[in-house]
């Protein structure tokens, strides 16, 4: 009997047309059940419907994580295939914040929350990366800030750190040979004319080098070999050249026609320094005397200044023609009044300074501040001193640790250039008025004797005891500034054209 009962059980299990009571709910039944539930929920939004689903249905939450449900308005929303939980949370937060009153007591907290959300979602604060801002002042891109958006408008100018920096070459633009150049600290053997011609004195000859075309001309040569040229100086218009000699004379040459116009005597020793003020030529001698010559008249000598006890090796008229500065081997600096109508005001110096401890050959007037004078001392002093002629005060002083042989102001960048002998034999560019070092120009193998600035103030020429002339293009303007300066420049003519004889 037990055998028949077992066979009946096997048949009942294998019979397929009977309903299965313990199996999971069929797929079509689940779909029908879920659609019925959705329909009833849509028709009765205020009532809750309890639908029991099978335990095999995919859960709507990740087990073990407490995640918020997708926020939705009452009545449902459209079907979105892929949902980002973070984006939906942000959207829900912003929607709820729209209907809440603004917290006026803590605006900083709201701003910080908004910044945090923006950084989390976008990787940057979107308020700082706006291209167009309609409210308030336009946004400024902070210095050093970078992002993937291009700044189309900025309220302020470009930061200084992004401006083009000026390049100063440490190598001269050109080197010229200067054979037989006298290596004498007290002489002034170089000058650059307004017509871009460089005059260089080599022993007893004067050579002219045209910086525009590169032509070299021998202007003059002294008759006796034992004589030599001790100073040269161009007129303002660049047509005439004054030449001081060791035989106590001052010669005046017409450069265009290569003709000597006159030779003016009067000194009792070599003439080591020259300076022009319109038609008046001032010459300084080893005797310590300074003569004023009116080159328009036959009786050229009009006045003598006596103050220095030793050789006058530095002589410079101020740009406005009011003062004549002189420096000597007696370590003194004098400032003399101008000559008017052939007469000087009693021949007394306006200023007299004795602070230098060495010979004062280097003198330079500031082109943009006519009352400022710079002076440099020799080996025993080595100081650059800046003077205010009106007050007589020494504005600043700097120890250069080297003999100073020449000074010149470079107006393009408002700088001061100094030439040095022992022990550095170099050229230094200083920022004015701070006197902070901008650059050093090295290359000369012996002491630098003189400096000369080009007509456009972009280049400085140096002559040294190594018998070379070097040109340094250290002050070139950018093209925009250069064109603006050329438009503002006015053509000038000198009265010396009219009646020189």
From TrEMBL:
Signal peptide: none annotated. Residues 176-472 form the CDC20/Fizzy WD40 domain. Residues 47-63 have a biased composition (Polar residues). WD repeats lie at residues 222-263, 305-336, 441-473. GO terms for biological process: anaphase-promoting complex-dependent catabolic process; positive regulation of anaphase-promoting complex-dependent catabolic process. Keywords: Repeat, WD repeat. InterPro entries: Cdc20/Fizzy, WD40/YVTN_repeat-like_dom_sf, WD40_CDC20-Fz, WD40_repeat_CS, WD40_repeat_dom_sf, WD40_rpt. The keyword Ribosomal protein does not apply. Pfam families: WD40_CDC20-Fz. One of its GO terms (cellular component) is anaphase-promoting complex. It comes from the Eukaryota. Belongs to the WD repeat CDC20/Fizzy family. PANTHER family: CELL DIVISION CYCLE 20 CDC20 FIZZY -RELATED (PTHR19918), CELL DIVISION CYCLE PROTEIN 20 HOMOLOG (PTHR19918:SF3). This is Cell division cycle 20 homolog. The gene is CDC20.
